[in-house]
Amino acid sequence: MQRLTSIEWARAKEPISHLSVAERAADNHLKMIAWLDARSGSGWYYVTGDNYHFGSQADATAFRQWLSAAAAAA
Fold first, then answer.
1. Which helix (H) or strand (E) holds 51?
2. CB 59 within 8 A of CB 17
């Protein structure tokens, strides 16, 4: 997936899916970003604090499922 810059985010015109994640430790945040960066596909995401914005609902759903699986494994 592509991580948008602030300027790209401001210009985003596509439908946007939003997911707010409870505040987590910094290393968890880095793991989430690494997972998103490694995810294949032409989708995009943008992170502001604990809010994650996605260009498609499918990407948001996949991220939510990964978070649930990671929490269950911990």
1. strand 51-54
2. yes
Tokens 């759903």 locate to 61
Q: Dihedrals φ, ψ of 2, to 5°?
A: -100, 130
- Quickly count: other Cβ atoms within 10 Å of residue 66's Cβ: 15
What is the per-residue pLDDT across 29-73, written as a single tens digit (0 to 9) for each? 888 999 999 998 889 999 988 889 999 999 999 999 999 898 888
pLDDT value of residue 24: 67
Average pLDDT on 7-24 reads: 81
Supply 46's token pair: 């943008």
CA dihedral 35, 6, 59, 61 (to 10 degrees): 90
Q: Is 4 helix (H, G, I), strand (E, B) or coil?
A: coil
